[in-house]
Amino acid sequence: MSSTQPLFLPPDGQPRCLWCAAAAGDAGYLHYHDTEWGFPVADDRRLFEKLCLEGFQSGLSWRTILNKREAFRSAFANFEIEQMARFGAAEIERLLQDAGIVRHRGKIEAVINNAQRCLELVAEQGSLARYIWQFEPQALAAPVIATETEASRALSKDLKKRGWKFVGPTTMYAFIQSMGLLNDHSLGCVTRARVEAARRAFKSPAS
């Protein structure tokens, strides 16, 4: 999001990032923007959940995935990595019949594969958070328009080398933005200062 772009002004009169306008009137979408997007995360389960959901979002809108998030959590054992890593053919067929989620065989199989690869990564790195935060990009004075960055390309490349799927550089940039590896809220957005304060108080697991 470029600092020169206009902000979105919802009915409460508090300016938000322009992308919130895509769901004008959706209180859940604004709540996600105000309380989750961009705030730093060091919890492995939450990080893995977001990696999975970003993969499911490919070709769809984030609003669609957010509205199905509770159904995804129920279907995928609350994204507990060890449980998902044990999913087999029976679970895949069950998921393909679940109307509450995105029933895409390739994406379903990918997140199960990624859970297995994640266990390998945690055994090597100590935690998913420690690994992810090694890719924290340099902070910028203002957001820029981008679909991928050097950091997202590096993360995507390394995950693919480790056997992960649906982790392209554009998907990884959305993940980096949402999990607070940088503050990409627009200048003037009511949430930007709160995210910046949270980032200053945050201790990176990679340090």
From TrEMBL:
It comes from the Bacteria. Coiled coil: none annotated. It holds the Pfam family Adenine_glyco. This is DNA-3-methyladenine glycosylase I. It comes from Roseateles oligotrophus. The lineage of its organism: Bacteria, Pseudomonadati, Pseudomonadota, Betaproteobacteria, Burkholderiales.
